[in-house]
Amino acid sequence: MTGIIDRYEILDEPDGRGHVTVKRLADGKTATCKASWLKPVPHSESPTHVMPRSRTKALRMAMLNWE
Predict the structure, then answer these.
(1) How many Å apart are CA 6 and CA 13, to the nearest integer?
(2) By C-alpha distance, which of 21, 23, 58 is closest to 37?
(3) Which residue in 56, 26, 15 sits closest to 38, CA to CA?
(4) Sheet of strand 49-52: strand arrangement
């Protein structure tokens, strides 16, 4: 891991299980993850831009099925 944490954009509202679809800003691929894994990006102008809450969550997000 390079130490750089990816940024994501939330594309929809949480479903009944608390999952959201996110788009990785680096390459535009999408995946579904738990909304609780995410926190707002500091100093971001867009309220939909988020980042993982921790490095552990970042690792889990890297292992999602990105399409």
Answers:
(1) 20
(2) 58
(3) 56
(4) 30-34, 19-24, 8-10, 49-52, 38-40
Residue 5 is predicted with a pLDDT of: 78
Could you give the CA distance from residue 67 to residue 62 in angstroms, rounded to a whole number? 12
Listed in sequence order, the residues at least 6 apart from 57 whose beta carbon sits closer than 8 Å to its beta carbon are 37, 38
Rounded to 10 degrees, what is the CA torsion of 38, 65, 59, 21? 0
pLDDT value at residue 8: 95
Q: Which residues of the chain have pLDDT under 70?
A: 1-3
DSSP 59: H
pTM of the model: 0.84
Structure tokens, 8: 């994501």
